[in-house]
Amino acid sequence: MMGDMKNIKDITEQELGALRVITFDIDGVIIPTGTQLQENADGTELHMKSKQLSRQFVENLKELKKHLKLNFSSGRNILYLKSLVNEIFDEDIFLQAENGNISWFEGKLTHSSHSADYFQKLKIIRERIKGMIAGGDKRIRGFEPKMFILTSHSDQMEDIPNLVQEVDPEGELYCLWTNEGYDIGSKSMSKGKGIKKLARHLGINPKEIMTTGNNYNDAEMLKVGTGVTVEPVRVEAQYFIEHQPDELGGELLAEFLLDYYRKRA
């Protein structure tokens, strides 16, 4: 797979000069994976603990936003994204939550539209998974609060993808492993469509938006924009960035871009 991709160090100055936006995925890209989530069987208590951006990365973002608009695209909910970037949040910060379903552009929140049948399917899947929790299945820890997609935190297990297929024989839903559980949502919306929406909003070509990612829900976004994968073994892109296991590819990409802008100054 790596043979078809180029190292980010091989990107041309012309390509870098054309960039107007950098889009960061979150988990495993700019924060370490490892969200702790535990929900009790009846859903009345939810404990959730996640990582934060490093101090150095926040300082790098402050410098980077002098050159590029910053977008953060994630399967996470919009409140989490807003709290993650509060320190640098202004009109040049864009947020796209729940795999492209919710967008925050310059003070305006918009979202995708789905049928009652779609939400009914998600409800059935959620109730069935809750039944598994109530039955003592310790592999499932609970659900993240979301509006337009369903995210269950669990071990990797065939039971959940099989359940989605059973409830959705029409194949309208995706069920993607996130390293911490499963994102379940409509195939009609994706992070890639979110990037196209941002490009239309800004009046630019999607290739003027650099996109980063490390997982299956990032695949379309990496193709739509000028993609940089931080996990080339898992998901392809035009470019990849090398990093050690204790390094975050998104942090290294920010440093790479800053080196370019500093040399131009």
TrEMBL record:
<dbReference type="GO" id="GO:0016791">
    <property type="term" value="F:phosphatase activity"/>
</dbReference>
<dbReference type="Pfam" id="PF08282">
    <property type="entry name" value="Hydrolase_3"/>
</dbReference>
<dbReference type="GO" id="GO:0000287">
    <property type="term" value="F:magnesium ion binding"/>
</dbReference>
<dbReference type="GO" id="GO:0005829">
    <property type="term" value="C:cytosol"/>
</dbReference>
<dbReference type="InterPro" id="IPR023214">
    <property type="entry name" value="HAD_sf"/>
</dbReference>
<dbReference type="InterPro" id="IPR036412">
    <property type="entry name" value="HAD-like_sf"/>
</dbReference>
<protein>
    <recommendedName>
        <fullName>Sucrose phosphatase-like domain-containing protein</fullName>
    </recommendedName>
</protein>
